[in-house]
From TrEMBL:
Limits of the Glycosyl transferase family domain: 173-322
Annotated Pfam families: Glycos_transf_1
PANTHER family per UniProt: GLYCOSYLTRANSFERASE
UniProt organism field: bacterium (Candidatus Blackallbacteria) CG17_big_fil_post_rev_8_21_14_2_50_48_46
UniProt-listed InterPro entries: Glyco_trans_1 (IPR001296)
Superkingdom to which the source organism belongs: Bacteria
CDD domains linked: GT4_PimA-like
Protein name from the UniProt record: Glycosyl transferase family 1 domain-containing protein
Alphabetized GO MF terms: glycosyltransferase activity
């Protein structure tokens, strides 16, 4: 049966991780308002949690869609929301062009660091470019935008609302417990994570929940003689029980991390755990230092802050209460809905237009090739310079190569090669770097 409600199509690579959690909460809330009809198309798989949600909400969805299905979905929608992070298929699809549409890009990365940095051409593509954190305004490429480009920017903070059972503050009466939960891999966790926590000399082992590289972290702890100070749990099926037993979330990320709101920080505050983080821009946009958590300026300061929180329960309780209050006041899903509705109303006032991503030229690089798309997505970055040096065979023995060259996904050279097909330069990069896991391992310095 046809509906007169405006149809909003959400395009994204997949529905895993925090993005899927945020979208499911948003769609559930939207079903109650009845102002828009939402559908989802992905070019990878949709996880079971999202499929169950979509079925319960009677939403239309399509996974592993080909180009024709994506184009048909765009043409049938009044509005399109493209959920952005640097993914090879996005670069291929955008460079080929989209049918006429009203388009907003909602970025789920902060845009500071390659391979998940913003690049200038991306901001000319949509009708509106929406950040998931106000920290993105400080990204170098954003600060260099023209006034006309900057006028099309907006912010809708990424969160899934107040978590279930968090309406009342969770008082912690058990012995002090610190821990980390989230993605466990060198691309996300600070390389000194183990020593940063161990220096605090806590009475109980620090918990670590999540994957996929939890076994590598366990091996590193044993190699460093720190295994007794950590309990590495691997992925958990019930993260909420974990939070409710946690006093402090020890969450130091690499400076180059690509996260935005970090849903885990909101969940920690909601369940009365004080977030202890390093003072990177996205964390600074969310945490009020010494009020709702602690922003440490260095690994040494992180260790001192962790010890402080263990030894000062009154201060810890004060910050935990403030963090809980912050979530209740600032993170209701209705606030996210209101911001999206304002965005949708603005877009509905525009005409549909076709669009195609502009690609810069590079000497000696085949236009539209996977390597060309990779270079475009890198923007004006050390990774682009290093890739062009590699193309020119400037491979001196002492040269320091970017750690991201060894990644298999996350917009790395090998990711582009694996998904977009044969490319002689990317094949040489794979052969040169994938055999060097030390470039991106726990304890490596980037």
């Amino acid at each position: 049966m046809k509906t007169s409600l405006p149809r909003v199509l959400h395009l994204l690579p997949h529905t895993g991780g925090g993005v899927g959690t945020v979208l499911r909460a948003f769609f559930k809330a939207e079903m109650e308002t009845g102002r828009y009809t939402h559908s989802v198309i992905t070019f990878e798989t949709i996880n079971e949690a999202s499929k169950t949600c979509f079925k319960q909400l009677n939403m239309a969805w399509l996974e592993t869609a080909d180009d024709a299905a994506i184009a048909a979905g765009i043409e049938a929608a009044e509005l399109v929301v493209l959920h952005w992070w640097n993914h090879p298929q996005w670069m291929r699809i955008l460079s080929q062009g989209l049918p006429a549409c009203r388009l907003a890009i909602w970025s789920h990365v902060n845009g500071f660091h390659t391979p998940q940095a913003f690049f200038p051409e991306l901001f000319d593509f949509p009708d509106r470019f929406v950040f998931a954190t106000p920290a993105s305004f400080e990204a170098p490429v954003v600060k260099a935008l023209t006034p006309a480009q900057a006028s099309q920017l907006a912010v809708i903070v990424s969160n899934s609302g107040v978590p279930p059972g968090a309406d009342k503050f969770c008082h912690k009466t058990s012995p002090f417990q610190a821990g980390y939960i989230g993605t466990v891999e060198p691309a996300k966790m600070h390389p000194e994570f183990l020593s940063m926590c161990a220096r605090a000399q806590l009475a109980l082992p620090c918990l670590v929940a999540g994957g996929p590289a939890h076994q590598a972290l366990q091996a590193k702890a044993e190699q460093s003689g720190l295994a007794q100070q950590f309990k590495i749990l691997g992925p958990l099926s019930d993260p909420y029980a974990f939070f409710q037993g946690l006093h402090v979330l020890t969450y130091p990320l690499v400076p180059e991390h690509y996260g935005t709101g970090e849903q885990v920080l909101i969940e920690a505050m909601a369940y009365g755990a004080v977030p202890l983080v390093l003072a990177h821009p996205p964390e600074k946009a969310l945490i009020q230092n010494m009020e709702t958590g602690i922003l440490a300026e260095s690994p040494e300061a992180f260790s001192e802050a962790l010890r402080f929180l263990a030894e000062h329960p009154a201060e810890r309780e004060r910050m935990a209460l403030a963090g809980h209050r912050f979530v209740l006041e600032n993170c209701p899903i209705e606030k996210t809905q209101s911001q999206f509705h304002q965005l949708f109303e603005t877009l509905l006032g525009l005409s549909k237009q076709s669009r195609k991503l502009a690609l810069p030229e590079f000497n000696g690089v085949e236009r539209g090739s996977p390597f060309h798309l990779y270079l475009t997505a890198c923007g004006d970055s050390p990774e682009r310079s290093a890739a062009l040096d590699f193309l020119a065979e400037k491979d001196e023995p002492e040269k320091v190569w970017p750690p991201s060259f060894v990644y298999l996904t996350r917009g790395s050279p090998v990711h582009y090669l694996n998904l977009l097909g044969a490319d002689p330069v990317l094949e040489r990069m794979r052969d040169r770097f994938v055999s060097r896991p030390e470039l991106a391992s726990f304890g490596a310095r980037s």
